[in-house]
Amino acid sequence: MNAHDSERLAGLLEEAGFQAQKPESALADVMVFNTCAVRENADQKLYGTLGMLAAEKLNHPTMQIAVGGCLAQKDRGEILRRAPWVDVVFGTHNVGSLPLLLERARIQRESQLEIVESLEIFPSTLPSKRDSLHSAWVSISVGCNNTCTFCIVPALRGVEKDRDKKEILDEVRALVADGVNEITLLGQNVNAYGVELGVRGAFADLLRACGEVEGLERVRFTSPHPRDFTDDVIAAMAETHNVMPHLHMPLQSGSDAILKSMRRSYRADRYLGIVEKVRDALPLASITTDIIVGFPGESEADFQQTLDLIAQAKFEMAFTFKYSKRPGTAAAEMDNQIPEDVVAERYVRLHAFTEEIAWQQKKAQVGREVEVLVSDMPGRKDDATLRQSGRARDFNLVHFVSEERLRPGDIATVTVTQAAPHHLVAENPPNAVRRTRSGDVWESAQASTETRTFLSLTPRP
Ligand code: 5AD
Ligand code: SF4
């Protein structure tokens, strides 16, 4: 979500006459921080970085610093109190105001703070500067109506707002016309999509409609909530040729008692039931997840249930998190918080176990032929061997050897020869390469990229 918001910020700034600068080059005229508040260490990182920038600001008094995103929404005036050299603080619903706020701060020589409580226009109407030429995010909803007791997101992103289906599909078609061949539908809880509009089965319908967009090779989505994951969605995934066989579905815990206390409305059985149905309908699907360890009240037995569920679900990958106490959430008030050393010790076991299961899953792919969408990364040469990378249909990262340099967005069919915990390797050149229009677009962009490189972020005179 934040990555996509950052693309919007970049798009808005470009439209206002700024140009992006590479992070490793000299200081820019404007620095924008798009922050996350899901876990506490993001807070600490921001204030640390702002502290370091205080000295830079003395050396470059015209440099402007802007802070947006969830942490800005949460801390509001606190950011300006702790770092008065910040020029602009803008909330999660104020992305569109950034260029104006920068201008106002410059002219009035005064910090600007703009944070509204709720969204008026759906943010996708704002311009966006994509990080990738062939892959794009498409927002289908923002906000979340759930009340998971550990989660700060609903307080900062507001209630769920769904976007009109026609608008979504128009954007998808426009992206395809622009050379995109992979989209990821984005929402805090994608399969609740349509509830606000009063349409049943709206998410499954949307997947099917994406299947009819010509030239769209791959459709992905993130993230679904197990509560709303209906059979109809599984059927739509299986029937729609370009919906990829990958499901990232947050589990959080394998213990029913903890799920209840987290106010996650499903139980371990229901979760495993979905996994089973997905594997039946899409035998080549990979399933990935998010897991929190050390939630208040988690006993060793609860934790063991999480490990058991991981073994049963056979996750291809899991993002694992130590529980982080967030202000204003119900879980922060619970009196059975787990001591840090216990959380840390369980985290080490959880991480090692998920890695082991993930590796087993990946080893099972050796010998299999997979289709890889070549990534934007340039590829590298070791001992005169060219190596390129991309994602398989099931989202596994695949590094493969190639005789010629393939174009980002093209599709290579390779045979997997090795598995590592986080990726697959194909040591022989592709069995086939399918050129796509994305590759053509990439080639013509290459021919004219010199103008895209990276002056400092300077307002148009
Ligand atoms: N502590 C730890 N992890 C959290 N997540 C969300 N809130 C917290 C928290 N307070 C994790 C969940 C979610 C992912 C995006 O971040 O696993 O699915
Ligand atoms: Fe947070 Fe739960 Fe909503 Fe996800 S579904 S954003 S974890 S409240």
Automatic annotation (TrEMBL):
Sorted UniProt keywords: 4Fe-4S, Iron, Iron-sulfur, Metal-binding, S-adenosyl-L-methionine
Stretches assigned to the MTTase N-terminal domain: 1-107
Radical SAM core domain sequence ranges: 130-361
GO molecular function, one term: 4 iron, 4 sulfur cluster binding
Biased composition (Polar residues): 445-461
SUPFAM superfamilies: Radical SAM enzymes
One GO cellular component term: cytosol
SMART domains given in the database record: Elp3
Name of the featured protein: Unannotated protein
Protein source organism: freshwater metagenome
Cofactor(s) listed: [4Fe-4S] cluster
PANTHER family reported in the protein's UniProt record: CDK5 REGULATORY SUBUNIT-ASSOCIATED PROTEIN 1 (PTHR43020), MITOCHONDRIAL TRNA METHYLTHIOTRANSFERASE CDK5RAP1 (PTHR43020:SF2)
The keyword Transcription is annotated on this UniProt entry: no
